[in-house]
Amino acid sequence: MSETPKVAIVGATGAVGEEMRLCLEERDFPLESLTLLASARSAGKKLSFRGEELTVKELTHDSFEGIDIALFSAGGGISLTFGPSAASAGCMVIDNSSAFRMDPEIPLVVPEINPEAVKNAPKNIIANPNCSTIIALMGLAPLHEAFGLRSIIASTYQAVSGSGAQGIVELEEQMKALAAGQPVELKVYPRQIAFNVIPQVDAFTDNGYTKEELKMLNEGRKILGLDELKVSCTCVRVPVFRSHSISITAQFEKPVDVEAAKAVYENRAGVKLMDDPSNGVFPVPLDTTGKDDCLVGRIRKNLVFSNALDLWVVGDQVRKGAALNAVQIAELL
Ligand SMILES: NC(=O)C1=CN([C@@H]2O[C@H](COP(=O)(O)OP(=O)(O)OC[C@H]3O[C@@H](n4cnc5c(N)ncnc54)[C@H](OP(=O)(O)O)[C@@H]3O)[C@@H](O)[C@H]2O)C=CC1
Ligand SMILES: N[C@@H](CC(=O)OP(=O)(O)O)C(=O)O
Question: Which segments of the protein form a coiled coil according to its record (predicted)?
Fold first, then answer.
């Protein structure tokens, strides 16, 4: 890989694409050029990067000639249609959708956890994991190193921006309608999201779990290299604009100790401890919004299972759960 690659963002006008541009700029990512790609609707739009105005271009199969790294974030359908042709044109594709995550020949990478996996990408595609999975694993991986992870029971509290720009609009519009005494309209979510919580993220599967819930199981196993890991997850949409929170009970091979568990976060990249509940210190979504680090709090011994801890992990899913993680993968190449 060139030391100053030519980089493209596919889905550059979206919630994650915008954040990718911001992360490249903030991290002073060494690049020769940045190409912004989106649908025909956005072609011609101007977006700034490092003080310059860049013009968004329409995504086509010819978009990747001469591009070294393409950060894809325009949904699974676009990734399936354009990802393989970009990869065979010699471009390294870092894909933020769920399209390729479980392909055994495509690495699924969280740079703080399994950075070595980027070296084995025979299809020139590297997948970025699901946002809730990344945030949960940022909290769990240091504990796994200390105690040996066996099983997870988790509930997520997922922000509306996880559904892209339309999710944000739906919450704002419903709040305004309710304040004005008007009926709410449902477009994105199956039930009212304002002043409510919805125990459904993504479609239900035959076993009663949603697709989003099964990502924590399947992607968690692949990233940690733990084929036997057991996971039961309930994903819930909450009326929060940004940052996902996850309540986790994790069972380990070895006996656990709360002070030793807290110590595992000292000097860890990308995750910090914020845990002094008796003084009101624990992370909330507003603490991580727009920030790189995930935060962990409420660590305690679980009262039901042996060798088990409870923890609460919060992270900005647009940033560490998507854009930042993808840019960090690009930095490893
Ligand atoms: N939002 C989040 O927190 C997270 C999102 N993701 C994933 O990231 C991806 C993007 O999500 P998000 O940014 O939220 O979505 P948005 O709806 O905010 O943005 C979608 C982007 O895709 C582009 N796009 C849509 N159709 C086409 C097309 N036919 N050709 C080219 N570009 C197209 C849009 O361009 P245009 O503006 O021209 O329509 C826009 O740039 C999805 O795969 C999502 O699952 C993953 C983790 C977290
Ligand atoms: N489904 C997540 C965001 C997302 O897009 O996930 P994935 O990349 O796994 O499709 C949410 O709604 O919060």
Answer: none
